[in-house]
Amino acid sequence: MYELSRVRLYSIGPAGARYADTVLDLRGVGEPVPDPAPTQAEFFEEEPVGPPRRPAPAGVLFLENGGGKSVLLKLIFSVMLPGHRNTLGGASSGVLRKFLLADDCGHVALEWQHTLTGECVVVGKGTLSEATAERAAAELGLTPAQVRADWDTARLAGLVEVHGNSARPGWRLRAWNRDDSAVLRGWVALFDAWSLAYPEPTDREPAAVAEVVSAMPQVLSFLQLSAGPVDVAQLLDLLEQRVTELRTERCEIPYGPGPGPGPVAETEVPDTPLAPLLDWALHALASVGALTCADGQATLTPLGSWAVWVKLEQICVAAQSPAGNIEQSAEDMLRGCARLRPNAARAEYRAWLAARPVGSAVTELLDAARGEDALLRGLAFEALRVVGAPAEPDVRTVADETPLRPYALLWLAEHEGHDPEDAHEVLTREEATWLWVDTAAAVADHGEAPLLVRHLESAVQPTVPALLDEVRAVGHPRTVQVLVALAAAHPDPALAKAVRRAAFQVHTGGS
Q: Do 153 and 189 meet the contact criterion of CB atoms below 8 Å apart?
């Protein structure tokens, strides 16, 4: 097993949480390794002397708010889990690109140390020389850029380890020699990445390729349920239906030549060029051993059939609603989640979302957020955080609606990579005050009096008089009820009197 030994961050991170050249060194404070071996050098400065020891078993990193805690985790996980879009709260695939400023060349390197031998492995980018890449490209029939990309992927996946100027099989390959389940897990990872295993057509729009990748699970499910050969023409018809459903959910006009914007219900949509993309998808799946394709028919291999069955089983388990809200409307589901702990509520959101199309689910959640109950407004946007990137266009649209604007701006800030602790900085003073009143209304309606008193501490205003002045000016429809409830709950008679006076002034229109 390997433990994280060092992290190096160079010229990377957003402007507010930038890592110019930072090394987090966890070495030399754990137990001595039992079977020391030569360690990898020259990736970092200042190598320790003496017998190698394991890294620190635990540690605490102190950073002020806005110092880059979430950025640090995103950067580390970008190396540990390459290609994962939803690492850390639904961050979009474009977040890491935004961590590079103009003309930047940023690096993230992780050094891992073996617990028994002390051998170190550094994972990162740019370790293959130009001459080696060109020689490999010539022998493999690839371009040097493809060789470097595949090399980096192999290192990140644990298939190759570099020691000085030599390479050897990585920990994953060594595990496969003695662990059949590791072999199976490795193949499942390859099956999940089938769209990367075979070059996609270069003459097709990337959007069309993405639609086919999104629609193929339904095609594979049909193959699995058919339990035998299926005509490719039948699969093409199913693929076209599924792609049409995906476009309808997004309210897009059909891809390819066709009528312009306007009613198209009575106009036959011309054939879209999906046949070449289906052929590409079937050959890609065949290249990873999931199916065979010959004589105009496709058949799942036993391994492919098992993998699809496991995926279907996982979907069914995910769709089971622990609290029984899966068939409820969005409003009733959110009310059912109001008393759940955050993790349980997120599980309920995932189950509810798995049972319906994303587009209609997002619309239903936003409709619930437009209601009078402020608690449901906050919960609706928590559920939208589970949705992630597919909800972004709708959230941007509702950012112009006053009641939803603060919630939408915070959602978008977190989605674009801001630290959740600092996302409130995107709000204006007026928007932050509106949000404070709205959340206070939720506490007044559903919480206890002490919670409402503690809610005062979350205001951006430094004093209660300043808060009351801005609350009166913001024009929230629940201002009077919130101030009356706060006055009744606060133990300080003088402050309670000032709050009641402010409530009376708002009620009568005075100043």
A: no
Q: What is the enclosing helix (H) or strand (E) of 2?
A: strand 2-12
Q: Is the pTM of this model over 0.90?
A: no
Report the C-alpha gap between 500 and 422 in whole angstroms: 32
The 3 state secondary structure assigned to 116-173 is: CCCCEEEECCCCCCHHHHHHHHHHHCCCHHHHHHHHHHHHHCCCEEEECCEEEECHHH
Backbone φ and ψ of 17, nearest 5°:
-145, 70
For residues 73 and 366, give the distance between their C-alpha atoms in angstroms, rounded to a whole number. 30
**φ/ψ of residue 67, rounded to 5:** -80, -15
The number of residues in the chain equals 511
- Three-state SS for 176? helix
The answer for 252, left when phi > 0, alpha when psi is -120 to 50, beta otherwise, is beta
Q: Is 117 in contact with 36 (CB distance < 8 Å)?
A: yes
| DSSP assignment of 346-409 | HHHHHHHHHTS-HHHHHHHHHHHHTSS-HHHHHHHHHHHHHH-GGGHHHHHHHTTSTTTHHHHH
Helix (H) or strand (E) holding 442: helix 429-446
Q: What is the DSSP string of 228-288?
A: S-EEHHHHHHHHHHHHHHHHHHTTPPPSSS---SS--TTSPPPPPS-HHHHHHHHHHHHHT
Per-residue pLDDT reduced to its tens digit, 2-34:
788 888 887 777 766 778 888 888 887 777 877
Task: Please tell me whether residue 108 adopts helix, strand or coil conformation.
Answer: strand
